[in-house]
Amino acid sequence: xxxxxxxxxxxxxxxxxxxxxxxxxxxxxxxxxxxxxxxxxxxxxxxxxxxxxxxxxxxxxxxxxxxxxxxxxxxxxxxxxxxxxxxxxxxxxxxxxxxxxxxxxxxxxxxxxxxxxxxxxxxxxxxxxxxxxxxxxxxxxxxxxxxxxxxxxxxxxxxxxxxxxxxxxxxxxxxxxxxxxxxxxxxxxxxxxxxxxxxxxxxxxxxxxxxxxxxxxxxxxxxxxxxxxxxxxxxxxxxxxxxxxxxxxxxxxxxxxxxxxxxxxxxxxxxxxxxxxxxxxxxxxxxxxxxxxxxxxxxxxxxxxxxxxxxxxxxxxxxxxxxxxxxxxxxxxxxxxxx
Length: 339
Fold this sequence. Notes:
It is a single chain. The protein is of the alpha+beta class. It is 47% helix and 10% strand. The chain folds into two domains: 23-123, 434 Repressor (Amino-terminal Domain), CATH 1.10.260.40; 131-311, Beta-Lactamase. It contains 13 helices and five strands. Strand 1 and strand 2 (164-167) form a beta hairpin. Helix 2 crosses helix 3 (74-81) and helix 10 packs across helix 12 (243-260). The longest helix has 36 residues, at 23-58.
């Protein structure tokens, strides 16, 4: 079960409605907007390139692989990835989304980023495509989804790359206010969500030291165990492109492990906190339970459940025990240079 589609709308533009701009201000505004247009175009071009490249690398595919899936030359696909396309049409975009195994939300953002509109209404994704090909595994996951849905706590199935296979309604509710993002949605890849989504700190309390750094420590261990995995390598490259996450990875993780010990990097048993969208809950204590079984192991999946208890200040988390989300890109878990 995926997060429900969110309403789409334009952000309000601030303006002085009652007074109106002077002629000089209007002229300066026109000059400023004219000067900003090439900048916006350059930013959009870079987003286009990054969207296709990152998704291809997440799948561990080469340009030759994707070109083969599309039935075009490698040179032609290379031009697609560089944005050198005369015209994007629905046929090209839907074929590209299929070749890159994109989810419904990723297809939405593919259209939004490349052509600034929604996918055609005639297209509907198939939930069956999310299930494995093996009929025994498919049947097991259908029953497992029913089990997860019966649990009142946020719960999801995740693989070793943190790609999310299944979520329940409680998980969807916890992250219902998260805005769309091309690569870092909580029900697509949970690690990317924690590290890169701008809304992560609004849901994951004490986001940087309690969520980012421990997850980076687990990621470092996974990458060390399988350094050739192209999906993990893709995440590592994205970390390297983010100066704050790179600082946390290179300096914060070793400092945190030295202070807390390697056992603290385990998923199972960690006590954290989330900020629930239900105002009756607010900041809520969260015990992370990670579990698997023979069939889930065969599929490379782990079930993660956030057991939510009393809201902060009621019986669970003492007031002030968790730092409030602070504005600005400051990683507090990274020690100062004096350390």
